[in-house]
């Protein structure tokens, strides 16, 4: 528990600093090239613009944009899976989770057909408000479930037996995905499980690449650091409290989806609140999925030089995008399999490697030696996270029998 909190604090602190560094970069662009990036200018892609001005190479801005699209697409896949699993918890009649994935994809697709990234603000607001409400209800339901003692034989989905089996097997490390929690983490943590866990935490801080867009829309962009750090302080505090309280209540029986714990254990009121929370999460993640898919489809439409007006070719591209996400979600129907994979690829590039490097290129002459060293360390950490996290995540899916589960 303590080591997990320390790792989360380190990642959160680093990304908070990177949000400030990106803010500095955007201010530099506005001051050096006001005719392109001034407050009154329309800038569609501020993050790739920072990449181009920092390096002078269009290729780097393209790589940054591809990393953003990988992140958005991966987040869309995760949103589909979380919506599907929330429906599975909510509905009394159990269906295969892949059926719920198809239903969620069907609900998402019409909004993706009709929407445009600049017009999705209402969906984004609905998702944001719903997420705050659902998070508060989740914490309340966990606390309510903690009013009763957890039964010793409580082990949904055979988790307790997996824990015992993995801890007693001293020759072969447990396959990732078979273990949800352990009181003695030193018995099960190795290179692979460490990077899977770290990449999952990194996923929790997705979205850094959109920050320059928010900053550009501010009346006073120089106040961005205060806004970013305040937002992160709230998110980190609430997330840490929920994680610690959940672990203290359920300990060894903690599942990947803690709502399953609340539903299976605790007073009836806690289980009922868990169902309400699941219903809100369905709406939240369907909205988030729409917001995640739209920028990807917009970039694809630009690649094919399609006009802004929606037509049959737009519908085909958007349908194929959602269909691919649905296929991936059906192949490995566990959102915790995709969290570390997305966290270690696009998000690690956009949250660590690129911001720190761009910061050095644009503002390195104003930084102290210690801050320059810190930025280079973040670049190196990001590169390691990309390769080590991606390898560990892929091996985790393979070891858990990911793709074969489709059959």
Folded structure, characterized:
The model is unreliable at 150-187 and 403-407 (pLDDT under 50). This protein has 407 residues and is an all-alpha fold. The two termini are 37 Å apart. The protein is globular and about 60 Å long. The longest helix has 36 residues, at 268-303. It contains 15 helices and no strands.
In short:
This protein has 407 residues and is mainly α. It is 74% helix and 0% strand. It contains 15 helices and no strands.
Search tags:
407 residues; mainly alpha; 15 helices; disordered C terminus
Number of strands: 0
Q: Please tell me what the overall shape is.
A: globular
Show unreliable segments: 150-187, 403-407
Strand content: under 5%
What is the H/E string? HHHHHHHHHHHHHHH
In DSSP terms (H or I, runs of 4 or more residues), the helix count works out at: 15
> Over the alpha carbons, how many angstroms does the gyration radius reach?
22 Å
Which class do the helix and strand fractions yield?
mainly alpha
Distance between the termini: 37 Å
Largest sheet: none
Write down the overall mean pLDDT: 81
Helix/strand layout:
Layout: H1 2-32, H2 34-37, H3 46-55, H4 58-90, H5 97-114, H6 121-145, H7 159-168, H8 191-203, H9 211-217, H10 224-250, H11 258-264, H12 268-303, H13 312-331, H14 335-363, H15 369-399
């Amino acid at each position: 528990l303590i080591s997990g909190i320390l790792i989360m604090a380190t990642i959160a602190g680093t990304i908070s600093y990177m949000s400030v560094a990106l803010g500095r970069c955007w201010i530099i662009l506005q001051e050096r090239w006001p005719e392109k990036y001034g407050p009154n200018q329309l800038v569609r892609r501020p993050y790739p613009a920072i990449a181009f001005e920092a390096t002078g190479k269009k290729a780097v801005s393209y790589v940054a944009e591809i990393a953003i699209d990988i992140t958005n697409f991966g987040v869309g896949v995760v949103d589909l899976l979380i919506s599907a699993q929330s429906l599975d918890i909510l509905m009394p009649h159990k269906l295969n989770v892949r059926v719920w994935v198809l239903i969620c994809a069907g609900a998402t697709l019409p909004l993706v057909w009709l929407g445009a990234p600049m017009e999705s603000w209402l969906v984004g607001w609905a998702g944001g408000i719903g997420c705050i409400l659902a998070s508060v209800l989740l914490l309340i339901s966990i606390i309510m479930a903690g009013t009763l003692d957890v039964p010793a034989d409580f082990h949904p989905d055979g988790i307790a037996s997996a824990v015992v089996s993995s801890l007693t097997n001293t020759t072969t490390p447990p396959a990732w995905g078979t273990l949800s929690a352990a009181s003695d983490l030193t018995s099960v943590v190795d290179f692979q499980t460490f990077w899977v866990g770290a990449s999952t935490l990194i996923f929790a801080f997705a979205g850094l690449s959109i920050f320059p867009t928010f900053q550009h829309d501010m009346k006073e962009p120089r106040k961005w650091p205060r806004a970013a750090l305040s937002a992160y302080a709230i998110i980190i505090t609430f997330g840490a409290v929920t994680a610690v309280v959940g672990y203290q209540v359920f300990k060894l029986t903690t599942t990947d989806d803690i709502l399953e714990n609340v539903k299976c254990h605790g007073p009836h009121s806690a289980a009922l609140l868990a169902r309400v929370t699941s219903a809100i999460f369905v709406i939240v993640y369907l909205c988030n999925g729409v917001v995640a898919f739209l920028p990807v489809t917009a970039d694809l439409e630009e690649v094919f030089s399609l006009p802004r007006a929606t037509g049959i070719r737009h519908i085909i591209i958007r349908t194929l995008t959602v269909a691919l996400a649905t296929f991936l979600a059906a192949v490995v129907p566990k959102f915790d399999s995709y969290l570390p994979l997305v966290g270690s690829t696009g998000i690690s590039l956009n949250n660590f490697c690129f911001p720190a490097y761009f910061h050095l290129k644009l503002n390195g002459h104003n930084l102290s030696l210690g801050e320059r060293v810190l930025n280079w360390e973040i670049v190196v950490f990001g590169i390691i996270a990309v390769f080590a996290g991606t390898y560990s995540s892929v091996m985790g899916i393979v070891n858990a029998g990911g793709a074969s589960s489709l059959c």
